[in-house]
Specification:
- With 324 residues, the protein is an alpha/beta fold.
- The protein folds into two domains: 2-182, 3-Layer(aba) Sandwich (Rossmann fold); 196-323, 3-Layer(aba) Sandwich (Rossmann fold).
- It is 37% helix and 19% strand.
- The chain has helices at residues 5-19, 43-47, 59-72, 90-97, 100-103, 133-137, 150-162, 211-224, 243-253, 268-280, 304-307, 311-323, and strands at 2-3, 23-27, 52-54, 75-79, 113-118, 143-145, 167-172, 181-182, 196-199, 204-208, 230-234, 237-239, 256-263, 289-293.
- The strands form three sheets. Strands 3-2-4-5-7-6-12 form a seven-stranded mixed β-sheet, sandwiched between helices. Strands 9-11-10-13-14 form a five-stranded mixed β-sheet, with helices on both faces. A two-stranded antiparallel sheet has the order 1-8.
- Helix 1 runs parallel beside helix 7 (150-162) and helix 8 (211-224) crosses helix 12 (311-323).
- The mean pLDDT is 97.
């Protein structure tokens, strides 16, 4: 089936709901309207309002209710309508969802999925184009994944719903409608905690996730003109982090460039750079480079493209580490 990312997630939700009656969806406008990005379109008609629940505009209540459902034995998939709206729900996620297993000494688990449309590139207004993954990956007890392709989106969603831990499922908004990809209708999972090497190379490792995985792919093509052979790692899973795949690649290339949309300070790229330095500094032929967003709020539409990492910035960073 040739699907875009939104359609692949919709298919995964439908199939998991067909297989397991404990899977329920809830969020703002996800039922009648099918969600702002139409990711849940058609699911209300198929499964009814008991399993596809339109909620009030209250993120803390959405996640609080979902945690209760999960502890009770259901498998809620909650939608936060936009990334910048997740902050009222962080108290519930950090204080309760992430800690219930430890607090109860294993008596309770929280099989909760929180869908979060994230990141920039669609010229949205304030609080609609943020990359809040740092808040999640810093919290023990929460898992975080982010697909960059329809194939990965379907497999990661299946794995997330079946996981007994809370999983934050980031969905890059810019990728919802493109590109399309052949996605099997049959059941499959993409393991949480396993990165993908989307292109092998010998000179420099480009590490990214979400929309930036496509930027890195374009940069790798541009670098071919400079006789630079880039390897590309699409993390897919932000927590847990697949350090083995990262280190294996850097041991081969000796150079690393990390690319993400989130602000630079305390971004996940800093943790990856530290991990490489601590575990394998003698393999490095140049310092690790980061190409990131800036330490400012995401600009509005007019200046959005000045904020986001682009092909030129990534290629320049790769050339700099090659010349070191």
């Amino acid at each position: 089936m040739l699907l875009n990312l939104a359609q692949a997630i919709n298919l995964a939700l439908r199939q998991e709901m067909e297989k397991d009656k404990k899977v329920v969806l809830l969020g703002e406008d996800i039922g009648v309207d099918g969600g702002v990005f139409r990711v849940t379109e058609g699911l209300l008609d198929k499964f009814g309002s008991d399993r596809v629940i339109d909620t009030p505009l209250a993120e803390s209540a959405i996640i609080g209710a979902s945690i209760g459902m999960a502890i009770y034995g259901l498998k809620p998939v909650a939608e936060i309508q936009f990334d910048g709206f997740i902050y009222p729900a962080l108290d519930q996620l950090i204080s309760h969802a992430a800690k219930i297993r430890n607090r109860s000494r294993g008596r309770f688990t929280c099989p909760l999925v929180v869908r979060v449309p994230c990141a920039g590139g669609i010229h949205a207004p304030e609080h609609h184009s943020e990359s809040p993954e740092t808040h999640i990956v810093h919290t023990p007890g929460l898992k975080a994944v982010i697909p960059s392709t329809p194939y990965d989106a379907k497999g990661l969603m299946a794995a997330a719903i079946r996981d007994s831990n809370p999983v934050i499922f980031f969905e890059p908004k810019k990728l919802y409608r493109s590109p399309k990809q052949d996605v099997p209708e049959k059941d499959y999972e993409i393991p949480i905690g396993k990165a993908g090497v989307t292109k092998e190379g010998s000179d420099v490792t480009l590490i990214s996730w979400g929309t930036m995985a496509h930027v890195c792919a374009e940069a790798a093509e541009k670098l071919k003109d400079k006789n630079i052979d880039a390897e590309i790692i699409d993390l897919r899973s932000l927590s847990p982090l697949d350090t083995k795949t990262i280190l294996t690649s850097v041991q081969k290339t000796g150079r690393a460039v990390i690319v993400h949309e989130a602000p630079r300070t305390v971004g996940l790229g800093a943790e990856i750079a530290a991990t490489i330095s601590e575990a394998d500094i003698l393999s490095l032929k140049a310092p690790v480079k980061r190409v990131t967003g800036f330490d400012i709020p995401m600009p509005l539409a007019k200046h959005e493209n000045l904020y986001l990492p682009n092909v030129e910035r990534v290629a320049k960073a790769a050339e700099e580490v090659m010349k070191f």
